[in-house]
From TrEMBL:
Protein name per Swiss-Prot or TrEMBL: EAL domain-containing protein
Positions of the EAL domain: 1-226
Species annotation: Rahnella ecdela
A matching Pfam family: EAL
Signal peptide residue numbers: none
Domain of life (superkingdom): Bacteria
Length: 226
């Protein structure tokens, strides 16, 4: 698979699949490899300016493919950290872009600084006025049900590590049931085989994401859905 290169960086589209097997949307990630952890290591090595530049490239791709997303009713999530979040909040032009592209979602990891106990959340609240937010990696240890109850997230993604540790258990089902009243749906990260899907059978989740589904390059994405 040959990922798209934009400004020297590769990007790929990772499918997000509903439990009924329908494509809900995609996460647009740095395609250092098909391994998410490699991508995360690459992103953590970037300077704030480089991260903002990469975000602009991702938004540009989202705009280029707008018709595909609208026509197929797909969503597109883009991961952002605090540096990118501050830049968005301080940039009125980006507010307009995000509001225009109704298929874009901003995905925030659970280690976002404003999630710490006792922190006010002006950046998070300003972001939520620009674009629907998703919470990524719930269960990794930095977020709590209290945060979920007090902030609005459209979808909540349960971390791969948490899912692997609790797959097939009552604990996982209870966590999902606790989250459901406070969001529009729960997505499970780390689904890699048919047994994982069996473990999730009967649980109140919206969708799944993981290595079970092959990601798309830009060319493959257009060929498949245009």
């Amino acid at each position: 698979m040959n990922p798209l290169k934009a400004g020297g960086t590769d990007y790929i589209y990772q499918p997000i699949i509903s439990f009924s097997g329908v494509i809900l949307g995609f996460e647009l990630v740095t395609g250092v490899s098909e391994n998410r952890s490699d991508s995360e290591c690459y992103e953590s090595s970037l300077t704030p300016d480089e991260k903002v530049k990469a975000f602009y490239e991702q938004v540009t791709l989202a705009g280029m493919n707008e018709n595909i997303f609208i026509d197929n009713d797909f969503l597109l999530s883009i991961n952002i950290d605090y540096d990118i979040a501050v830049h968005i909040v301080d940039n009125p032009s980006m507010h307009k872009v995000l509001k225009r592209y109704s298929h874009i979602r901003l995905e925030i990891d659970d280690n976002f600084p404003e999630f710490r106990t006792g922190q006010e959340r002006p950046v998070l609240q300003a972001l939520s006025e620009c674009c629907p937010l998703w919470l990524d990696n719930f269960g990794a240890g930095f977020t709590s049900l209290s945060l979920i109850m007090n902030e609005k997230f459209e979808y909540i993604k349960i971390s791969k590590t948490f899912f692997w540790q609790h797959q097939g258990t009552i604990s996982l089902r209870k966590i999902i049931e606790h989250l459901r009243p406070y969001c529009d749906g729960v997505i499970i990260n780390g689904v890699e085989n048919s047994q994982h899907i069996e473990y999730l059978s009967g649980s109140n989740i919206l969708a799944m994401q993981g290595a079970l589904w092959v990601p798309y390059s830009q060319g493959e994405f257009i060929q498949s859905f245009f």
